[in-house]
Amino acid sequence: MSQLIFLDVDGTVCDYEGKVPASAVQAIRATRANGHLVYLCTGRSRAEIYQELWDIGVDGLIGGNGSYVEHREEVVAHQLISAEDSRGIVDWLTARGLPFFLESNNGLFASPDFEEGAATAIRDYAAGKGNQDAASFTVRKAFPEMIFDGELYRSDLNKISFVLHDYQDFLDAKQQFPHLKAGTWGGKGEHALFGDLALDGITKATAMQKLVEHLNKSQADTVAFGDAAVDIPMFEYAARSVAMGNSGQGVKDAADWVTADATEDGLYKGFAHLELI
């Protein structure tokens, strides 16, 4: 019976420099040839799914950590931050002096101070992920298609990410916008490098459920691969789940099985273990 396979992107399909191992491409193509459906399931918005990923061949996308669901170019669901909330967040972050970028299917839009203000956080993020070129890593390398002079008052946003000067910035954002979901990324606990704001009640798991229902499939047919804490709801929903070897211990504990690192043919080995190829 065909399976619905949901794949996180960074640290799962590709390494933390955005490079996709040849074995991952081989695994995805082989499992689709066997009749299974493969979906990217990521915090990235559609604008960050670069052509290299589409060229692998997938059946659709869950983006923005669940705010956007697409099956073979058909939009199944898309839930956006309201224009009023978007303006309020932009104004609050600007007044607080927190560099930010807006995540939309139409592009990534940076605040005027983001390139300079996020430079240290981006280098720290790269170093934390084991990038050997972390000391020279730049915002433009991390986000090659980011728009630096775009309109910031928008009505097409999936989520908003911002630099944390300290952990209190996250706590204050959570208090300032209690009806939204506040999160952190780029680090662990109070050492998180970025905060983000998105619609509440949306996860990768809720999006998976929407897609399963849209396709008249069963939850029993779902498989999930991931490497980060944001992937744990995906593991909890999926009938079978696999953590990458480069995952933290909490993520590994939440999965049914642990494969090798993304850079050590982890995706291919995971697919083989589940007899998808």
From TrEMBL:
GO CC list: cytosol
The entry's keywords: Hydrolase
GO terms for MF: magnesium ion binding; phosphatase activity
Keyword 4Fe-4S part of the UniProt annotation: no
InterPro entries for the chain: Cof, HAD-like_sf, HAD-SF_hydro_IIB, HAD_sf
Any matching Pfam family: Hydrolase_3
Database matches in PANTHER family: PHOSPHATASE YKRA-RELATED (PTHR10000:SF25), PHOSPHOSERINE PHOSPHATASE (PTHR10000)
Protein name: HAD family hydrolase
Organism field: Rothia terrae
